[in-house]
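Lab meeting prep.
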Amino acid sequence: MFRDLKSNGFDMEGTWTEDIVYFGNLYLCLSIAYTWMIILGADCSKNKKSKIIGATKKLKNKMVRIYSLFSCGIKWFNRCYDSDIKKYKLKFDLVLYDI
């Protein structure tokens, strides 16, 4: 998680903030985004989308994942976001509950 939040993923250190409230809010948002990328990566592995993004490799007649779930999720998110013809879509349901 440390590497994913730093230079290999969200580039959290690029903010250079000294305000603790701002950093707390930023960390909350990044934690939610990080969780969503992990869920997307797990969905990619489960639904055989990893072949599309090149996240698997065949070694000794066995399929092996070469990217982390976070990397798979971020690659799939970028593929869906950048898709011009909307061939790839992100499927998710957001449900808000009243308490």
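Slide two material, second protein:
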Amino acid sequence: MLKAGLFGGLLNGCLIVIILGIALGLGLWLDAAAGGGKRVYTIVLVLASVPVTLAAVFFFSRWLSARTPPPMVETEPGREDFLEDSNSGNN
């Protein structure tokens, strides 16, 4: 479980860096194309990337946790069962 948590955190961190990098690069390119001395496009795109990043991390985390199997515990020697929650009805 520790490896899965670290792996998920690493992927979320990479996702954040990628989205912010795209926003920064696009903003700098638009500012250079516009020829203005102010970095208006860069600031607007970086600020606009914050809610996009939050939504992307939320949906990516949900997708990743849905694909992760529940942890297995050993109840009897040689027999492993999945942990069940209180809503499964199989307790």
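Talking points for slide two:
The chain has a mean pLDDT of 81.
Residues 8-67 form one domain.
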